[in-house]
Amino acid sequence: MGFLDLEKNFAFYAAYHSNPINIAIHMIFVWPIFFTALLLFNFIPAPFDLPHIHFSLFQTDFFLIFNFGFLFTLIYVVFYLCFDYKAGSLAALLCLFCWVASSVLATLLGFQLAWKVVLVVQLISWTAQFIGHGLFEGRAPALLDNILQAFLMAPFFVLFEALQILFGYEPYPGFHVRVTSMVDVETEEWRNKEAKLLA
């Protein structure tokens, strides 16, 4: 599978997310996982003395520090822009917004409260997704077959899927038809494997 092949990657993702309830669960809970990971990264000291942006809001001083949270965000931004420049631009903006918002929240909460917020949100979000797969999808999550996709591609794909559902978005004509046929093949292969295991 080509690393930046949008059709193959989205078909792989979609094959694990065909149930409408499971799709909705992922749309609700994937981005909070990304956001709270960034929130936690704000407390990891940068290995170098990098520049930062200082600003005041509501009589509180905030700092945007080019730390691990920024590096994490930058990786996602570059990847999403390479994946699809239209939906990728929106995903990149959301990633940057999450970095800024998580930096502000980190300043407001402090580490003693922030790690508790991160823990609760991560537990709820991951539990909801596993329930979505076990109860509604009837198929193990994609992260068991492709962990990179679970962490790097999932935020983009839930946004991409929302754009498809709400606005009929396609990066180019015929994308949806081609991906649907690839998903059908992938799903059929999975069913055949499951049938062999049960036989």
What descriptive keywords fit this protein?
6% strand, globular, 7 helices, 199 residues, single chain, two-stranded antiparallel sheet, mainly alpha
**Terminal CA distance:** 30 Å
The proportion of residues forming helix, as a percent range, comes to over 70%
Number of helices: 7
Following the backbone from N to C, one meets helices and strands in this order, namely HHEEHHHHH
SS class: mainly alpha
Instruction: Name the overall outline.
Output: globular
Give the neighbour order of strands across the main sheet.
1-2
Radius of gyration: 19 Å
Report the uncertain regions. none
Number of strands: 2
Percentage of residues in strands:
5-15%
Biggest pleated-sheet summary: 2 strands, antiparallel
What does this structure look like?
This protein is mainly alpha-helical. 73% of the residues lie in helices and 6% in strands. A two-stranded antiparallel sheet has the order 1-2. A hairpin with a 2-residue loop joins β1 and β2. It is globular, with a radius of gyration of 19 Å. The two termini are 30 Å apart. The relative contact order is 0.18. The model has no long low-confidence stretch (mean pLDDT 87).
Describe this structure in a few short sentences.
The protein has 199 residues and is mainly α. It has helices at 6-15, 20-41, 68-83, 85-109, 111-137, 147-167, 175-198, and strands at 52-57, 60-65.
Helix/strand layout:
Blueprint: H1 6-15, H2 20-41, E1 52-57, E2 60-65, H3 68-83, H4 85-109, H5 111-137, H6 147-167, H7 175-198
Antiparallel strand pairs: 1-2
Helix pairs in contact: 1-7, 2-3, 2-4, 2-5, 2-6, 3-4
